Amino acid sequence: MLTLGAVINILFPSACPVCKNDSDGFLHAPFCASCWAKIEPYKGPACPVCGEPAVSGHASVCGHCIKNKQPFTKVFFYGIYDGVLKEAIHRFKFCGTRRLGNPLGAFLLQAVLERTTMQNIDCIVPVPMHKTGLIERGFNQTAALAAVISEKTGTPLLNNALVKNRITRPQYELDRDERQKNLKGAFSSSGTINGLRVLLVDDVVTTGATVRECAKTLRKKGAADVCIAALARSSVNASGPVLIRTDF
Ligand SMILES: [Zn+2]
Ligand SMILES: [Zn+2]
After folding, report:
1. With contact defined as beta carbons under 8 Å apart, do 15 and 30 qualify?
2. Which of 27, 33, 69, 122 would be 196's cystine partner, CB 3.0–4.6 Å?
3. Residue 188 near residue 165, CB atoms below 8 Å
4. CA 85, CA 96: separation in Å to the nearest integer?
5. pLDDT of amino acid 2
6. How far is ligand 2, taken at its centre, from the CA of residue 52, in Å?
């Protein structure tokens, strides 16, 4: 007797990008079930504001957040940007595997609900793409993730509350300071979020430059509070260039 996964793989043959065996799970194909099960939430200490994982000890506010007041209250994230999670995000964003939006969105929802009740959130806003990038990719991956949270919690999704006005240099080429400058003034908001507590959704947070600039824009237009939900947190050398390419 064939399992459903086996039937799906006969109809739509695909190899797991991690172990190269046949994919056996239609929910997270092309990843096989055992590789997908390796995706784990981060349970270690992290800065309670920006989520920067701490090397050791108790979670305390990191040096960067002490020096710079953040325009957001908290970053909720699911896992570390590494291993199968990194590969899955890559497939989702750049290889057209849009169906991964649902299982990845479920991870994001779990990360949010473990740390807050949605009663503190009035609306969900995805980090926007510039229209040129949107045409090239065909979809905005953060909007797809945000849609999963909205659907499961009934919290309104405001897809157009934030707009990216210009094309910016890829963040991975830049160090922490340059990243912030690169995005300065890149976003605008219609102001539909006036007085609202916003959950801003991104896929990967590294230095936080993107979500910081988005949150600043939302606060300027009257958002009462901004929290960030991200699938993954990438490690960053505190003063030097970013070690992992995250935002192609
Ligand atoms: Zn596998
Ligand atoms: Zn911090």
Report:
1. yes
2. 122
3. yes
4. 16
5. 62
6. 6
pTM strictly above 0.85: yes
The position carrying tokens 């040129």 is: 132
Strands 197-205 and 123-126: parallel
User: Distance between CA atoms of 31 and 15, rounded to whole angstroms?
Assistant: 8
- Taking 90 as the threshold, does the pLDDT of residue 177 lie above it? no
Q: Which two tokens stand for residue 64?
A: 């960067």
Ligand approaching nearest to the C-alpha of 46: 2
The residues near 149 (Cβ < 8 Å, ≥ 6 apart) are 105, 108, 109, 112, 124, 155, 199, 201, 229
Distance 237 CA to ligand 2 centre (A): 13
Structure tokens at 26: 């239609």
Question: What domains appear along the chain, each with residue ranges and CATH number?
Answer: 1-38 (no CATH), 39-233 (3.40.50.2020)
Ligand 1 centroid to Cα of residue 131, in Å, is 35
